[in-house]
Amino acid sequence: MTKTASHTQLSRVAAAVWILAAVVYLVVEKIAADNVKGHYSYLHHYISVLGVPDWGRYAYLMNGAFYLQGVLMFVGAVLVTRASGRRAVVFLFFTAAATVGYFLVATVHGGSPLAEGDGMQLHMAGALLVFIAGNLAIVPGSSTVARVADANWWYRAVSLLFAAVGILAWLTLANYNVWGHNYGPVGLLERIPVYSILAWQVFSAVVLLGLLRKRHVHVEHAGV
Predict the structure, then answer these.
(1) Is residue 221 part of a domain?
(2) CA gyration radius for the chain?
(3) Nearest to 192 by CA among 156, 154, 162, 159
């Protein structure tokens, strides 16, 4: 296998794992939300509610989705970095930090012995890592993906928009009791910085697979 073919294969696998992570997360979130005791609202309730065993029978699936997203986000980043032929240290650093965040959110959930006392601070720290590091990873990550896929300028522009929206939503959520409540319900503001990461993963995967690449058609001009 040539070096170019190897890099292409790595980028395709990266795209596949990023899409898989996003799809599984969203499907499991819907299943968990539909089976919470009482009413659950995507707009007004925290995502973490779905991972509390006492509140939903599929909490274990939700926590599993957190783990899977964390692992596959990092695996995809490593594969894309290898395909790029460069180190991409900053991208891997932020992605690894976000992965730690997903693991903390899934492990230190409400009802876990680790959450007793001040343990929920670890859960909150994990959420912050996901919100901040996950969205900051998009900035260097988009540069790495663009290099691998030979993407046009608009790919990076859209990627930076995802990151900006995610960070802005997190800042609004962090100041919810002061002024953030004027801009949306808490559940929505929490989901935006999570969904921005998933959206970027899928968007980048589509670019890596070449599905948005302009098709060049070669036309032979026959002489008469």
Answers:
(1) no
(2) 20
(3) 162
Asked whether residue 81 is domain-assigned, the answer is yes
Specify if 216 maps to a domain: no
Give the burial string for 149-174 (b: 16+ CB within 10 Å, else e).
bebeeebbebbeebbebbbbbbebbe
pTM: 0.91
- What CA–CA distance (Å, rounded) separates 64 from 70? 10
∠ CA 8-201-97, rounded to 5°? 105
Roughly what angle, to the nearest 10 degrees, separates helices 153-174 and 138-149? 160
Segment 138-195, tens digit of pLDDT: 999 999 999 999 999 999 999 999 999 999 999 999 999 999 999 999 999 999 999 9
The whole domain housing 17 covers: 3-208
Q: What angle do CA 184, 159, 49 make, to 5 degrees?
A: 40
> Which 8-state DSSP code applies to residue 37?
S
Rounded average pLDDT over 44-50: 94
Q: How many residues does the chain have?
A: 224
Taking CA atoms, 185 is separated from 17, 41, 105, 162, 191, in Å, by 31, 10, 21, 20, 10
Q: Express each pLDDT in 61-82 by its tens digit.
A: 999 999 999 999 999 999 999 9
Centroid of chain to Cα 182? 26
Instruction: Give the total number of structural domains in the chain.
Output: 1
- Asked, for residue 14, whether it belongs to a domain, the answer is yes
Cα(187)–Cα(194) distance, rounded to whole angstroms? Answer: 11
